[in-house]
Structures are given as C-alpha cells and as structure tokens.
Design brief:
single chain, alpha/beta, Rossmann fold, 2 domains, six-stranded parallel β-sheet, Glyco_trans_4-like_N
Length: 380
C-alpha cells in the first residue's frame, strides 16, 4: 500500500540548503513513487520562489508568513491538504518550528503516524536560548515534540541520546551520508575539476590547500581555522566554501592577521558541485564548537581528503583519532594547525587515514543503504 507522507521543514531547495535538506532530497529521491508520495510544507523565504513546485519526488508547498508564525500557519496549511489527501505519516525535520507544526497536527489527528528526525547542529541548549523569557511557558509543549512522536530518527548517537533525555526511547540511528557511487567512482570528474579550481583561485603547483565547506556561523569555528593559518607555512592556503552571517567579520579577521592573499572566500556553491572543490584541496578542517553530524566531513572522506575535526557532538561516530581522521582540541588554533601539518608532511599517516575513511564511508554512509533504513521507519 502506498504511503502518503507530509513533511514539515523550515527550509528546502533551492535557496536554503544544509545537511537536513540534502538528506530529505537524497532519501526521497531513492524511495520508489509506487511505495510513497511526499508533500512538504515549508517557508517561502524568497517571494521569487513559486508557492508550489515539484522538486524530485517531493511536492513542495511554500507558505508566506513571518518565521515566528510558521508553526501555526504550516499546521493550517497541512490541515487543508490533509482534508483532501488523508496522510498516513507526518515527518518533521528537526525539533524546531517545524516540530511544533507537526505536534499541532498530531494533537488534532492522533491516528496519523508522526516521525521526528533530529538533524540539529547547534547546541542542545539552543531552543531554550531562542525562546528566551517564553521558555517556562513553552518548555512542556516543546517536550511533546519528542514524546508524541511514534518514532524518532537521529543522525548521530549524540542526538539519539537527546531524544532519550527528552523522554522518547523509540529512536533509530539513521545518519546522513554521501553518494558513494558518484563520488568514489569519480563520475563527477573531481580530479579534473579540482585542478581547474586550483588554477581559478591562483593556487601554485607547490602550494597546499586546506578546505572547509560550511556555513559561516559561530558553531562551525571558522574563526579558529583562520587563526590556525598564522601557524602554518606561507605556502598553505585556505579555501572557504559557504556563506553566512559571519562572512564580513571573517574577511576582516583574515585581513587583520595579514592573510588576505592566503584565505579564499569562494562563496555559495551548490551541493552537487562541492566534491569538485574538495578535489582541489589537500586537507579538510572544521573545528566545530557543536555538530549534529556533518555531511561535509563525510564528503571529504569519500573524495579522499584527510579530515581534522573536534571531538564534539556526533563527530566521534565516524571519526576515530589516527584511524579515520585526526582530532584537534576545541578552540585551540595552534593544535589545529599542528594536526593539519601532520597530514601535509606525513605521507604514511595520510594514506592510512584516507584508506580507512573511504572504507568506512562505503560500508556505513552510502545514501542507498541509508534510504532503505529510513523507508523502514516511515513504513513501520
């Protein structure tokens, strides 16, 4: 029997794309249309975007409303759609405003199966901070986003534990992944593309490139990475792929450290093109302050770029120190530089880590395998 599934998500393609949005698209694209149909209610951030369009296997309904009113307006839109379609499952992407929408729907339609997916990358104290003085009044309601879910999926052990702490033990570990076939078989022309990008950004033949692909926000610790460049040789450049609220501040920081010619701000890059940028680099680094999991790390490993990261959040699920990457101390630019240098100078360590990481990615983080696991949860 074909499952009719309604997704609640604050953001979606084509303009606001992070790990959660990539996961939804990768998973829904792999589930046969004969097995499930997907509708989505999301926020219309840009009035240039249509109110409705089909993206892959998902019918996207965008609502125009201030973000603060999204939970109520999305619930009303979902109720209108449900009157016609009679959904079997509602699926909330994260325990945020989308989670409140799903909760309201579940309260009024208790027989509809409700799945909560935890994709959070911010500190777990973020909801409390965000709600401010309203937290004492909304705390119990926020908890019901978890407790009323028929099942919870989490992208890491870290987030799975959060679900248990919030009172729901029906939690399944369904991580984010990568397109193993396209990346590892180099169907994207990563090596050639990477070489062209090095020329585009003026990287010399004997120069090395450290790359980070991330939103330029405080949690990703990109300021620490820029500072780490002061401890690395002048022949090492930093390629920063992504945009965010800290972009101007980070440019000023790089200029202040005398790194204007060594730090390259590449701006926004569409997710399918990111592997080519990774192919231009020698080391991937992101000294995260918090992290739910991080698709960027997995993509770097799949491409064959050694990874330096901090042991926070969901990162220890896939990064074992000296085996599939190197850990650096949090908030320590000098230690970060030291670990980057190991990969730049020690070919033996580099090869061992790259080989181990690629085997792990192939075995555990292939979207084809992950989509099967998610489909089981949606069907149960």
């Amino acid at each position: 029997m074909k499952n009719k599934i309604l997704i609640f998500s604050l953001a979606y393609y084509p303009t606001l794309v992070g790990g959660a949005e990539v996961a939804v698209k990768e998973i829904t694209d792999r589930i046969k249309e004969s097995e499930a149909s997907f509708d989505m209610v999301t926020l219309r951030y840009d009035r240039k975007l249509p109110k409705f369009e089909k993206i892959g296997n998902v019918s996207v309904y965008r609502i125009t409303t201030p973000k603060i009113f999204f939970p109520i307006v999305a619930f009303l839109k979902a109720s209108f759609l449900n009157h016609k379609k009679q959904y079997d499952v509602i699926w909330s992407i994260m325990a945020n405003r989308a989670g409140f929408s799903a909760l309201f729907f579940k309260i009024f339609h208790p027989k509809t199966r409700y799945i909560l997916t935890l994709q959070e990358g911010d500190s777990l104290g973020y909801p409390k901070e965000r709600m401010g003085i309203l937290w004492p009044f909304l705390k119990r309601l926020f908890g019901q986003i978890f407790t009323r879910a028929n099942a919870v999926t989490a992208i890491s052990s870290y987030l799975a534990n959060w679900s248990r702490e919030m009172g729901n033990n029906k939690v399944f570990l369904v991580p984010n992944g990568v397109d193993v076939k396209r990346i590892m078989n180099d169907e994207l022309g990563i090596k050639v593309g990477g070489g062209e990008l090095r020329k585009k950004f003026g990287v010399g033949e004997n120069e090395k490139v450290v790359i980070t692909t991330s939103r330029l926000v405080p949690k990703n610790g990109v300021d620490i990475l820029i500072k780490a460049m002061t401890y690395l040789p002048p022949s090492v450049k930093l390629l920063m792929v992504g945009v965010g609220e800290l972009e101007n501040e980070l440019k000023i920081l790089a200029h202040g450290f005398g790194l204007k010619d060594r730090v390259i701000f590449a701006g926004f890059v569409e997710p399918p093109k990111i592997p080519n940028y990774l192919g231009a680099a020698d080391v991937f680094a992101r000294p995260s302050r918090t992290e739910g999991q991080g698709i960027s790390f997995l993509e770097a490993m799949a491409v064959g770029i050694p990874v330096v990261a901090t042991p926070v959040g969901g990162i220890p699920d896939f990064l074992e120190d000296k085996k599939t990457g190197l850990f650096c101390e949090s908030q320590n630019a000098e230690d970060l530089a030291r670990k980057i240098n190991i990969f730049l100078r020690d070919g033996e360590v580099r090869k061992i880590v790259i080989d181990n990481a690629r085997i792990m990615i192939s075995e555990r983080y292939d979207w084809n395998k992950i989509s099967v696991e998610m489909e089981k949860v949606l069907k149960a």
